[in-house]
Design goal:
- The complex is a heterodimer.
- By secondary structure, chain A is of the alpha/beta class.
- Chain A is built from eight helices and six strands.
- Chain A has a five-stranded mixed beta barrel with strand order 1-2-3-6-5.
- In chain A, a hairpin with a 4-residue loop joins strand 2 and strand 3.
- In chain A, helix 2 packs antiparallel against helix 5, helix 2 packs across helix 6 and helix 2 packs across helix 7.
- Chain B folds into two domains: 91 residues, RNA polymerase sigma factor, region 2, helix turn helix motif (Rna Polymerase Sigma Factor, Chain: A), CATH 1.10.1740; 91 residues, Winged helix-like DNA-binding domain superfamily/Winged helix DNA-binding domain (Arc Repressor Mutant, subunit A).
- The chains are: A alpha/beta, B mainly alpha.
- Chains A and B meet through helix 1 and helix 2 of A and helix 3, helix 4 and helix 11 of B.
Chain lengths: 244, 201
């Protein structure tokens, strides 16, 4: 036996060293794979919610806000979910690359596989209504979630013809509305058209397209329902009223 | 002092690395076979990539073998044992250098410098006579990632798959790094010796 091997075996014997159990390595590897799977799952759900939000966007509003559809798209992109997707992509990459042979797959190929997986699963999540449900869940359970959505601010642009809130009382020419900031407006709705099943009654939450006629006075041209927890989403996704 | 249980060296020689790993897991004495098989090449490798003296290199190697023994169950047959032990040696050496805050200096002998220069076609590419001092100077100016792959490829004579497993890089990246390293070498040569390059042309 060589001197070095004798020295090492003596150290092993004196310190009572034993190889770490196989189970601990298997557990570590399993955890890395599980976290990678989890990152794909969360990424896919985020994609599902993002698709839901974009698909239910009222794109016709661009003319009141930016006048340019592309600029409007940049305003209403679901940035919160995009950040979540990016975080979980990084998390997924980290975990995959630390699996036993994770380094063998080039980063670009891993990125393509990861994006395809999240996109396909995300489309599935959207298709089966998970994007919608998750969005409503966050609206109800996560304080401030609505404020992350540009649409919340979109309907506070009275000067640009967009106003939303709750009907306080009806008047001969329309109604009194409490907007999202709590200010009261006298709305003239004599010539307004009601779309998507909007109704005018006290405590109804609505969105109005029109123009500001005076201080806290608004002339309504079109009235849409303020749809449930989704805030500004289309009628088919209305799921009851939620706190603003 | 430990009770020596001698392992028959001939028995060791007839066994593959994977078989010896399996045996070492049942009886630590068989681990001596793996130590004996790899100690020389690894101590040389440590000295090559770090520039440390023999004693320091042996200290690192001892840590390497202890680590290898502790992690024996983590060895996967999807990997060559040699790649695995080189990886651990490489990482342990780099950690030691970081602890010492010292930049690795490549120390290889005359013959290996020449072989490095020839195998990488550096001499041919720069169309110059072999000049060890110059080659060594330029080589040591290259960044660590380039020196690593050049050493593993042309001095340790390892294939791309083994280098990929040692450095935990995709095989394509290893190929790219080798190509870039050669390119960098040529650029450095031209930059530092424009006269010689022009004359050689």
């Amino acid at each position: 036996m060589t001197e070095l091997s004798d020295k090492i075996l003596t150290t092993i014997q004196e310190q009572g060293l034993k190889p770490a159990p196989k189970a601990s390595f298997r557990l570590k590897n399993f955890l890395l794979w599980a976290l990678f799977g989890l990152s794909i799952l969360v990424g896919a759900l985020s994609v599902g919610v993002s698709i839901f939000l974009l698909a239910n966007q009222e794109w016709d509003l661009y003319q009141y806000v930016t006048g340019n559809p592309l600029a409007f798209l940049l305003l209403v992109l679901p940035y919160f979910w995009l950040v979540v997707i990016i975080i979980f992509i990084a998390f997924g990459f980290y975990n995959y690359q630390h699996t036993k042979f994770g380094y063998r797959l080039p980063l670009l190929r891993l990125a393509i596989i990861y994006l395809l997986a999240t996109l396909i699963l995300g489309l599935g999540a959207y298709r089966f209504g998970l994007g919608h449900r998750l969005n409503n869940f966050f609206n109800e359970q996560l304080p401030g979630y609505q404020h992350l959505n540009y649409e919340h601010y979109l309907w506070q642009k009275a000067d640009q013809g967009l106003l939303a809130g709750e009907i306080i009382s009806l008047t001969p020419t329309g109604f009194i509305l409490e907007d999202l900031k709590g200010d009261h407006w006298q709305v003239n709705a004599l010539t307004a058209i009601l779309v998507n099943g909007a109704t005018l009654a006290p405590q109804e939450q609505i969105k109005i397209i029109g123009e500001r006629s005076d201080v806290n006075k608004f002339l309504a041209r079109e009235i849409r329902p303020w749809c449930g927890c989704g805030g500004c989403l289309k009628t088919e996704h209305c799921v009851g009223k939620c706190g603003r | 002092m430990r009770n020596n249980i001698m392992v028959n060296q001939e028995y060791c020689l007839e066994r593959t690395d994977s078989e010896l790993v399996a045996l070492a897991l049942t009886k630590a004495d068989y681990f001596a076979c793996l130590i004996k098989r790899y100690e020389h090449q690894l101590v040389v490798y440590i000295k090559r990539i770090s520039g440390l003296n023999h004693e320091d290199a042996e200290d690192i190697l001892q840590e390497v073998f202890i680590k290898v023994f502790y992690n024996l169950n983590d060895f996967d047959s999807g990997l060559k044992f040699s790649s695995w032990i080189y990886r651990i040696t490489h990482n342990e050496t780099m950690s030691e250098l970081r602890r010492r805050h010292s930049r690795p200096t490549v120390i290889i002998d005359d013959e290996e410098w020449e072989s490095l220069a020839c195998n990488t076609d550096l001499i041919k590419e720069i169309n110059s006579q072999y000049d060890r001092a110059l080659i060594e100077k330029i080589f040591n100016q290259l960044s660590e990632k380039y020196r690593e792959v050049l050493l593993l490829r042309f001095v340790e004579d390892l294939d791309y798959r083994a280098i990929s497993d040692i450095l935990r890089l995709p095989i394509n990246t290893v190929g790219t790094l080798v190509a870039r390293a050669r390119q960098k070498f040529k650029q450095e040569f031209i930059k530092t010796n424009p006269d010689r390059y022009d004359r050689a042309k």
